[in-house]
Amino acid sequence: MRPEPHELQELVRDLHRQATPWLPAGSGSRLEWGPPVQPGPGRSAPLALSTARLDRIVEHNPGDFTVTVQTGTPLVVLQQELARHRQWLTLDWPWGTAEAPATGGGNALGAGTVGGLVARGLAGGYRQRHLGVRDQLIGIGLLRADGTAARAGGKVVKNVAGYDLMRLLCGSWGSLALITEVTLRTQPLPPQRRGLWLHGPLQQLQPLARWLLGSSLSPERIDWHRRTLPDAADAAGAEALLVSLASISPQTLEEQVACIRQQADQAGVRTEVLDPERLEAHLELGRGSSAPRPAWLLRAGVPPRRTDELLRARELDGASAVIGAGSGLGDIWGSAAQLPAYRVEALRRRCRELGGHLTVLRQPPGPAATAIPAWLDAPSRPLIETVKRQFDPKQQLARGRLPGVQPPP
Ligand SMILES: Cc1cc2nc3c(=O)[nH]c(=O)nc-3n(C[C@H](O)[C@H](O)[C@H](O)COP(=O)(O)OP(=O)(O)OC[C@H]3O[C@@H](n4cnc5c(N)ncnc54)[C@H](O)[C@@H]3O)c2cc1C
Fold it and tell me: Which of 30, 69, 155, 279 is 20 to 30 A distant from 228 in Cα terms?
């Protein structure tokens, strides 16, 4: 269903009166990823309520570096609007957004809506310098399951007292409420960017990554790439580091490139300097452009100091991966042949041993009984379930999909 903004609240109230299960949706690009949603009695698929018609940029305050948008606004449209004022939302294009943003991405998935982005709460390599989606959120508007409209946060960059409802909703996967509007922090667009592709044996790249993380050069991102090049399958050294540098001064950029190059030479690592266009091409590889719609897509997170161990894990053999060197968070993907299910289970165990976690976003189709749970119980499961009952007492929203609660088999 794609209601007009003025129809939305009454529709949600009606659904509540009838206790109809439904699923908040944006453009539907990644709706089925993660645990399956129970459709409710008499339906073969869950009723999806899309924000597609809530697509207005409500207010952009370039001077305050804030923007308020309705959540059905495509991310591409928002970034284009901000770029007209030399600003941007400091976030990557989501995994699967194969084509460069300026054109709106003529690829299979597209970058989705701002609401979908906030609801999933995932961030990529720019987290290194700019933190994640939750850190860009200043205010949020929502409709609760009973149709009550609520707001949290504000429209200016300052601390707001009270419960942090915004960050509760960020990463809630549509399980708590329909997010209708968000206010986000913006940043000036860096006028100059340069990339470095550093490749060589893992044991030579690792000290270089550690040096980069501790250096004062403050790259925008330092991403581990593993088998992301189309021809990487047989390459002996399939790992590389993608570094992105941004500055207002071309001279500073050149100095930074020279400094990293010197370190890389000393470490015996090969360096390729990337102009903005080639940097974007490498970023696309990290969004899975050489393997659109893989059978497996996994989201992994380990403490940053243990990223090396994850990269060395033999359970990763055959798979492609991009992991933020500073955050320890990233995506792993592969075909059913490259990643048999038992290896995914072993990889999950390995991530847990390392103090992290693994979420299964996509898996090959098969009998439900053999499916791997998208996520396992979090230690805070009782608390999460209490919050769910408060927000959604009739269990209408995204039934069966609650982050931190292992989905029923
Ligand atoms: C670097 C990066 C990597 C990412 N990688 C992934 C990834 O691998 N997999 C992934 O799934 N996402 C990923 N994301 C998040 C991604 O941005 C969103 O999944 C995507 O934008 C979905 O857009 P959509 O509008 O098509 O949402 P949909 O596909 O329609 O919905 C996606 C999810 O959001 C919920 N939702 C959508 N709109 C609302 C709303 N208004 N209120 C409440 N809930 C809502 C839905 O219930 C569903 O759970 C990533 C984001 C970044 C920045």
Answer: 30
Whether residue 59 lies inside any domain: the answer is: yes
Mean pLDDT of the region 42-59: 93
CA of 69 to the centre of ligand 1 (A): 16
Is there a domain that residue 300 lies in? yes
Q: Strand 137-143 relative to strand 357-362: parallel, antiparallel, unpaired?
A: unpaired
Q: How many angstroms separate the CA atoms of 149 and 7, rounded? A: 13
Q: How far apart are the CA of 92 and the centre of ligand 1, in A?
A: 13
Comparing 97-101, 126-130, 191-195, 214-218, the range with the smallest average pLDDT is 97-101
Structure tokens at 28: 């539907």
Rounded mean pLDDT, 245-250:
91
The residues that bridge with 70 in the sheet, in sequence order, are: 181
The two three-digit tokens of residue 299, written as one number: 């989201």
What pLDDT digit, counting tens, does each position of 259-279 carry? 999 999 999 999 999 999 999
How far is 71 from 8, CA to CA, in rounded Å?
Answer: 13
Residue 234 has pLDDT above 50, yes or no: no
* CB distance 204 to 311 below 8 Å: no
Residues 234, 365 within the same domain = yes
Could you list the residue range(s) of the whole structural domain that residue 317 is in? 192-369
Both 233 and 321 in one domain: the answer is yes
Same domain? For 212 and 237 the reply is: yes
For atom 23 of ligand 1, which residue has the closest CA? 112
Q: Are residue 122 and residue 250 in the same domain, yes or no?
A: no
In angstroms, the CA 402 to CA 132 distance is: 21
Give the per-residue pLDDT at 323: 96
Q: What is the CATH number of the domain that holds 350?
A: 3.40.462.10
Residue 162 pLDDT: 62
Ligand 1 centre distance from Cα of residue 174 (Å)? 9
Residue 406 maps to a domain: no
Is the predicted pLDDT of residue 309 greater than 80, yes or no? yes
Beta strands in 144-220 (DSSP E): 149-153, 178-185, 187-188, 192-199
Question: Quick one: 278 and 171 in the same domain?
Answer: no
- The reply to whether 401 falls in a domain is no
Could you give the number of structural domains in the chain? Answer: 2
